[in-house]
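Possible regression after last week's pipeline update?

I re-ran a chain I had predicted before the update to compare outputs. Posting the input and the new output here so someone can diff against the archived version. Not blocking, just want to make sure nothing changed silently.
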Amino acid sequence: MDQFWEGIKNWILGLFGADLMARAIQEGNPIPVQAWLNLFYSSITFIFGLFVAYKFFYLILGVFGKSRRYPEAPATNRYCFLLPARNEELVIANLIDSIRAMDYPQELIDIIVVADNCDEDDKTAQIAREKGAFVVERQDPEHRTKGFGLQYALKEYAKTHDLEKDYFAYIVMDADNVVSTSFLRKYNNCMVHSGFDEAVAYRNAKNLPENWISAMCGMNVYVNVVTGQRARSMLNTNQQVYGTSCCFRSYLLKDGWNWTGLTEDLDIQTDLAGRGYHLGYCEEAVFYEEEPTKVGIFIRQQMRWTKGNIMSFNRYGWPLMKSFFKKPAWGKYDMYWQIFPFSLYSFYFTLTYQVASLVLFFVLGDHGYSWQSFFIWIGTMLGGIYVTNLLNDLLTVIREWKRFHLSLPKTIIYIFLFPIYQLINLPISAVAAFMKVTWKHIDHHTVVDPKDLEAEEAQKQNK
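New output (post-update):
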């Protein structure tokens, strides 16, 4: 045991360069530059850690706590579903059918499908019309993001409807989604009793067992719940927004859709939080999405998210921080660190340390450089990312197991593989920062009956 604590002490001293300083002082030599370098980089890392240390508290709440529940509200509010879709003929009917199968009065539900830049032979618009949806077709190759499609659809719809008065709220769903039977009823309970201006629902995966890529991408969905969303629900603070299941009170869209970036969800959350709106979470409203199943699609998706994250942070980060200093609120502080591009920062911060260390080696040689300190620092950074995410994964699986659509043996394997998913994001972020990233369509193919997924979850809960 003494050796263990001695090793911990030496590791900490090496991380901050204190071992080099102590040795130099003891020998009467000048303190080597490598020691100051380690002290500088480790101190910056420690300060950042203090800024986001609250996330450990979030994790504890996410594992042991429960999200807010809302009493039944009269099913009298009118809702409009907004479904952007490009070449989604394989899955659009599945989504519309699931909406029509909900236990909410169907006469109070309207569906708008935006057939956005679809190919000539694609049947998305035709299928949606046959299913009774109001369909808007749009061709604008220069503006292909979902935000532009929704902006155009609401502009067209406003010609015959009052966007604010005709509906209580709008719900945006991606074409690859399906919703649970109680989805809108639970959402209505939440929006009536919570006073949220905007909210998101519980995101589950409908093709988790398809392959290792879909499993690891799906794992990230559950981790977000346990490490953030559930805690924010318990504390009633502003939530992370993702691009699907967003429920907007109609007054937010009375003038149309205003978020058209690569990652419109980040634009939404930082813009609305900065303007003082309350963004919430309804865990009882459950929907299922299709996860990527190919490496190329995964990388492309991550690059778009990273680039969009950077653009959103550059646009809204400073105004959000100024808003915090003007009128401090925990939700604004938390939101700032939600959109902070940690992957990009981590990669280049570590890279500059490596470059600076190697320069010292070639300039000063062994007199000002320590390979041991170098590997301690690099190993701590990468190992810290892996171990932190491994802990998050393990606790997430334990907490959310009843909602996992994956066998136990595969789940155990993916628990150890998933942190690699996070490490891969570091070089992807580095590349995306300097590339022109455009929105590209992702093919979807998984058709499921959400009642089957609900039945599988119910069976696990009974066991």
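Follow-up from reviewer: compared with the archived run. The two ends are 41 Å apart (CA to CA). Marking as no regression found.
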